[in-house]
Amino acid sequence: MIPSICQKMQRLINQGITRECEVAYLLTCIRKILEQEENNNGQWDNLKFYCDWGLHAKLSGSAAQGVLNSFNEVYLSRADREQALPSSVEDISKFKGLILEVKNFLTSRDIIIPQSANSDWSKFIFLYASIVEDCPLIINAHLSPLSEIQKVTARVELAKEIKLGQQYYKVSWIITDSAGDDGELYIINSFDA
User: Fold this and answer.
1) What is the average pLDDT across 91-114?
2) Cβ distance 121 to 109 under 8 Å?
3) DSSP assignment of 66-109, as one string?
């Protein structure tokens, strides 16, 4: 079954991923392989988290708690607005781990990523963020009892105009604290229009 899944992923990569349903399909294929290959010694735990988030309405498991703990650190240090974001939160908010893990996974399965696909990763991030939009990561009090936040939710907004051939977008991270109040971090990115 795995060789046929890999062939499907290769065809998808070759044609180019331009729609949310194609990102979701790629994540589904990856998740199927990860489930069949249970003994990967945690090598793909981050990728599994991203696949799960893309395929579920909300997450509260241990991988989600790790992400939320990073956001909780930012929340706790919110008084110092001049302080740079911790690299873990910056990487999460820019989906750096997702892209690296997908590339590494595809390469490990001998799936060739065309050179032209390298410029499409920003669009992939936009499409993925659109999939997980309004699908919160929720604090599990048993796994993160000291957390000051309840949940983190991603929201995506396209710029109204295309500028210099680029479609800009904003990914907002809405952090809801234990009192129900919201704060926001965001990134701005673009892809070729």
Assistant:
1) 92
2) no
3) HHHHHHHHHHHTTT-TTSPPPHHHHHHHTTHHHHHHHHHHHHHT
Q: Is 54 in contact with 20 (CB distance < 8 Å)? A: no
H or E stretch covering 137? strand 137-138
Q: Which of 140, 168, 10 is nearest to 69 (CA)?
A: 140
Residue 173, strand partner residues: 154, 185
Which has the minimum average pLDDT: 45-59, 64-78, 91-105?
64-78
**Residue keyed to tokens 């793909």:** 44
Tell me: pLDDT of 79 over 60.
Answer: no
Q: Structure pTM?
A: 0.91
DSSP assigned state of 133: T
Distance CA 29, CA 185 (A): 31
